[in-house]
Design a protein that fits this description.
- With 449 residues, this protein is an alpha/beta fold.
- The chain folds into 2 domains: 2-124, no CATH class; 132-446, pyruvate-formate lyase- activating enzyme.
- The protein is built from 19 helices and 9 strands.
- The protein has a 9-stranded mixed β-sheet with strand order 3-2-1-4-5-6-7-8-9.
- α15 packs antiparallel against α16.
- The radius of gyration is 23 Å and the shape is globular.
- The mean pLDDT is 95.
- It binds iron/sulfur cluster (SF4).
Length: 449
């Protein structure tokens, strides 16, 4: 039914404005203020924000020349090449719904037509913004990298690059990714300054604001932003915060307190394994403290929804069902939306993908997930979206052959995973041998590198 509605919206509303129209090009943005990069959604490659432009016009942290050019092309019914992800999906079948439809669904024909008739060079205020002030983070998760975590930067600075990871063409662990944070160590930077100059006008149009990082609670700008929610009283903005919920107690307490000044707050935290195995995978995590912080937010904070993002890598699959049991326990106490969960499969670096597991361990993890699914499939506490995501991971483990196009075969991925873990253990004072169950340890020990 809803699929039918989406197709109808595409044919009768969106495509009538222009067959290549997408509201995200005007009204949505992700901006990494520490690196000075922006993009309209997660599909096109990000592009650089022009420092000269923002000195005159702070909204150019979103209204870049590149986006304006793409707007013009969409107004003319042409396809901006950067949006090839959507065109590929649409070209497969005219019944396919690409993300440009989902990104435009919340606007009516008049609003979309107005955007079409607006001169392409006009600066537009956003409705939806995802923003990262800096990459300061207290965690250095095994599947993350220095682009998103200063603790990862510290590892590379102190110990040098990880060696001999032959399948990782993108070099996730060989440098500090200094270019992604040119103002590292400084209190502010011109992109952050432009954001604050734009904020008084931006806050009037914004409907959804999501703060990511690094860990937002470690950024002074995050707290400054929460102050504005308090001082403005009734900001009509739904705020979402991505947090590892592993910060110092006083920061968590402060967040709980500030949450009462926010009309609509959603918290997105991450975890995909249980107990010691989770602590191994997410270096910096204290699992019991994370559980307590989730419960603190749900009992004392003003949180409308708490969501757990699960990053599905090879090692998490051996304790994942215990974590799912924990979610069920919380759902019983706090309702089916607290927490909700989603499962995102790691694709890069490819040796962190679940496809690095050998066939017998893939079968074992599928069997555990299927058993959990069977046991809980009648539960009213699990929403359809969550069941779909679980099915998708089971299907992936059963059928997928390549983590990414042209990825190395499994025997090469497992060698790199072993090489990585040996170096990770040494640098982080960990031991995979005493953390994981014997079937995993036996497999890792059997890999010759
Ligand atoms: S057309 Fe597709 S790829 Fe381009 S901004 Fe819209 S949703 Fe993103």
């Amino acid at each position: 039914m809803s699929r039918q509605r989406n197709i109808q919206f595409k044919n009768e509303v969106l495509d009538k404005v222009s067959p290549t129209f997408c509201a995200a090009k005007w009204l949505d943005s992700t901006i990494w203020l520490y690196s000075g990069l922006t993009v309209s959604c997660h599909h096109p490659p990000s592009h650089k924000i022009d420092l000269n432009e923002i000195s005159e016009n702070p909204s150019a942290i979103h209204n870049t020349k590149e986006k304006k050019q793409a707007r013009l092309e969409m107004q003319q019914g042409k396809r901006p090449t950067e949006c090839e992800y959507c065109w590929k999906i649409e070209d497969l079948s005219h019944e396919n719904i690409s993300d440009r439809v989902f990104k435009s669904l919340s606007y009516d024909a008049n609003e979309l037509q107005q955007l079409k008739e607006t001169h392409f060079e006009k600066n537009i205020n956003l409705k939806t913004l995802e923003i990262a002030f800096d990459r300061t983070c207290n965690f250095a998760c095994s599947y993350c990298n220095p682009s998103y975590s200063t603790r990862w930067v510290k590892d590379i600075n102190e110990n040098g690059p990880y060696n001999d990871l032959n399948t990782d063409q993108r070099g996730h662990y060989v440098s500090t990714h200094a270019a992604s944070d040119p103002y590292y160590g400084q209190e502010t930077n011109p992109y952050v300054e432009a954001f604050w100059k734009w904020w008084p006008s931006l806050k009037e149009s914004l409907k959804q604001l999501r703060i990511t990082g690094g860990e937002p609670m470690m950024s002074p700008h995050f707290w400054r932003l929460l102050e504005t929610f308090k001082s403005d009283g009734n900001l009509n903005i739904n705020l979402a915060v991505n947090s590892n919920l592993g910060g110092r107690d006083e920061l968590i307490e402060r967040f709980v307190k500030e949450s009462h000044h926010i009309r609509h707050l959603e918290v997105f935290t991450s975890n995909e394994a249980y107990g010691l195995q989770a602590e191994y995978i997410r270096d910096g995590l204290d699992f019991e403290k994370w559980k307590l912080n989730v419960e603190k937010l749900l009992t004392k904070g003003n949180v409308k929804r708490l969501h757990v993002m699960m990053t599905i890598n090879g090692l998490c699959l051996f304790s994942m069902t215990q974590l799912l049991d924990q979610f069920l326990e919380w759902k019983k106490r706090f309702g089916c939306e607290n927490p909700t969960f989603s499962l995102n499969i790691v694709r890069w670096p490819t040796f962190q993908s679940p496809l690095a597991l050998p066939p017998h361990l893939r079968l074992e993890t599928v069997s555990r997930l299927k058993n959990w699914f069977e046991k809980n499939k009648q539960s009213d506490l699990i929403i359809d979206y969550e069941f779909d995501q679980l099915k998708r991971v089971i299907d992936y483990l059963e059928r997928a052959t390549e983590a990414t196009d042209g990825a190395a075969p499994q025997p090469k991925l497992e060698k790199d995973l072993k090489r990585f873990l040996v170096q990770y253990d040494k640098r982080r004072n960990k031991q995979y041998k005493t953390t994981f169950e014997s079937i995993v340890v036996d497999w890792l020990e059997s890999i010759e590198v």
